[in-house]
């Protein structure tokens, strides 16, 4: 169980140079959740993905180290999101127009493994959040946010409409929820600044949003 939890909570990173296969894989009962993606080149080839061209040709062409495409995240979502595993060959044709022909590029992908069946619970500020699982099952926390998100929360409408829409979140919410609920059949916590600290300006209403599985 602890191995499963650590795999679910872990942030994975994978990378592949042009002409190599990128391969993402998640453990049983979880699927890929793409967090971020980059395709292009922002470091010289002696640091990452050496040039495939002969040295004499490589010296003639000035390598572009400020090269990226804006389509890499969408491409990764199309290829891999919500699948248990995915694999494909990396080359510039996949991502549309080549922004820097003659420069060897690479793909870096950041992803998590999300449980196939998960629940979401919200508690408004100062309310109690209680999580529980059926007999013989225990809680595995996937994510936890305490603060105020850009879209707000339907369950906790904000009264202070004069406040600017600023996103503010506690950096320790996931760590605290994991410590309080990890491996337990049930747990409860108040969605309060006493527990999580106050990541926002004074007067801004906050909420706690937890995604978990049993």
TrEMBL record:
> From the record, what ranges are coiled-coil?
none
Q: MF terms per GO, please?
A: carbohydrate binding
Keyword tRNA-binding belongs to the record: no
Q: Does the keyword Repeat apply?
A: yes
Pfam families named in the record: SUEL_Lectin
Question: InterPro entries from the xrefs?
Answer: Lectin_gal-bd_dom, Lectin_gal-bd_sf
The residues covered by the SUEL-type lectin domain are: 16-114, 123-214
Q: Which CDD domains match?
A: Gal_Rha_Lectin_EVA1_EVA1C_rpt1, Gal_Rha_Lectin_EVA1_EVA1C_rpt2
Keywords attached to this entry: Lectin, Repeat
Q: What is this protein called?
A: EVA1C protein
Tell me the name of the encoding gene.
Eva1c_1
